[in-house]
What does this fold into?
Amino acid sequence: MAGPEIKAPAFREFPTVPKIQPDSMAHLKCYVASEKIQGELGFPGKLADNWQETHDAVIKRMGELLEKYRSLRVFMDACVHCGSCTDKCHFFIGTGDPKNMPVARQELLRSVYRRYFTPAGKMFPALVGARDLTREVLDEWYNYFWQCTECRRCSVFCPYGIDTAEVTMAARELLDIAGYGQKYSNEIIGKVHRVGNNLGLPGPALIDTLTGLEEDVKDDTGCDVRYPVDEKGAEVLLVTPSADFFAEPHIDSTIGYGKVFHAAGISWTFSSKASEAGNFGLFIGNYEQMRKIALRVREAALELGVKRIVVGECGHAWRAAYAFWNTLTGIGAGANDPFAVELQKQLDPRYKQPSHICEVTWDLIQQGRLKFDKEANDHRIITFHDSCNVARGSRMGDYPGGQFDIPRNIIRAVANKFVDMAPETIGEKTFCCGGGGGVLNDELIELRVKGALPRMEALKRVVDDHGVNFMALICAICKAQFTKVVPYYGFKSGMIGGVHQLVSTAIKLGNEQ
Amino acid sequence: MSLFFAILFYAASAILVAGLAAKIVGFARTPAPLNIPTTPAPTTPAGVVFRMFREVVFFESLFKGNLWIWAMGAMFHFGLALVLVRHLRYFTEPVWTWVAIAQPFGMYAGFLMAAGLAGLWARRFLVERIRYISTASDHLMLALLLVIALTGLGMKFLMHTDIVAVKAFFLGLMRFDIQSLPVHVGLYIHLFCVAALMIVFPFSKLLHAPGVFFSPTRNQADNPREVRHLAPWAAQLEKN
It folds into this structure.
């Protein structure tokens, strides 16, 4: 992209709270969605010529959202400005822009809420910090609510559990209703509806890619590991982010998924209809879009007659699948519409529906059905990055925190050298990669580089102290973001990879020649 | 003056109860359409109760977030809780035993409360980023509470008032039989600010008190694969 060269912030010897630099990120704005992109999703194509019209539509929608979402309603009222969140956001730490402090970001919306929906804001706006919705306010929302990765780190530290992701989602919904959508996310949602995945990869191209992959794996291992598409009657439907089909290093994990199923003797398939696990409906906070995207998976599962639904390495996709699929579409237990009932009959109740690929692999390892040559990973000293949506929005296994243990257990089972980053930067306190939530676009590269600072500092420490040369992940967006930004911090892109890439390296396929 | 305070307290009580009830009903009636607990979250309702207990009594998340804010916030809130318990003696006859036992603790808790408030307020001036997020009402709220704490302490330790008469006034209020209040500037300021606090409660950030119980990130169990969370408005979508 054109423009000034982006410089990464310097590593700090003792990470401290940055000095505030008001409006230091006010210049950053991602491309606005075209009328066509907006129209495909049923949103207004552009801002109305008459501001009053836009103003009224946004305020009306805000009232509706306050009736629909308890989270928003409580979060608008409950904040006391205590400041616990102020130094927790990677974007504030990296940029110093005070509007990237979660409380201040939320205030951009809350100030308008107060003005129109509370007696205090109607009568004493200056006293309580309430303001009219103006064109300038809408622009400010566009800037700063697209400088949030919805990573929820702030919600961990809030005494009332106020979750900026929920506020950001509401604000983005309001922007869409105003005809002020973001090009990157809304274009992707259009593609998933039109073609079946976020990257716009049509079915034949998908099959072609996977056939090529089978040949590559055959060349490497001598084994006929299969990467099937649309195979009726397979036991497992694997839904993975479409980046896993060709991007580097994502494809290495895809190879690993196939090897796991091959070694365990489980039949499986991709679906050309649901060739995408990512659900950008989450990023724009639109329930209907999220549901529509999720329904593809239910339809594919029914058509293919699978017994299990498994999700590949993707953070927000896993949150959408784990936490929302059941509610949105009845994939899980307890739904009673005709399609969901049929699906329940079809799915195997012995397995959690849906399952994460790490849950599947870890179960197989515990059952002794997978064998590894751990030394094959000895050239790697590995650390693990907890991806936000897995760490703070979803779970694996049977107990709270299983999402932290299971991927680490797998790594320890397939490799000898593993070391964790500092405790205050992993688990539920993990730092965002800086690229999630719909900000993974070129326009925001400055933000993405600066927002990666806290994670890079933690990585730097284990690189220096333990010689770490590989950071394993289970999120497609983290992989794309890190491979792009780690060079700014003096690391090599090749040190980023998937957990199933490590599995792939060490797994014994049983029938090697 | 007694009549003025009588009317003020009837009005303040009515606004507090009605305003808070309206807010709580609003929170309770708004559906939570998706399961969004911040993990690692308990997987059972009993676990949720335990998490909420830790949150409300020990400010667990704030403890993780910032030790200074936690310490000052805890000083203020625990101080306030003990002071409120101590004040029950003005509303009960005979005074309940446990309230009587709490009296000496409540007395010194007043200092704790004032110190906590002073610390919280100092941050709003001294810490750059906290100054940035503070509004006029944040300052006013702290001022109000601090004046209440200081006038209360003043009446205990500096210029005593006739607390027997104060008690008679409040017991009278509760029977709609207005008694006379002692003439005492400190007492007047104290009571006026308390009434003001009661009135602003349902319209201000003090709503964090009921709000915390309704926060979906804290009050939901992490069980979405086992239990469906379908909001009524979302169920409508299924009919299409």
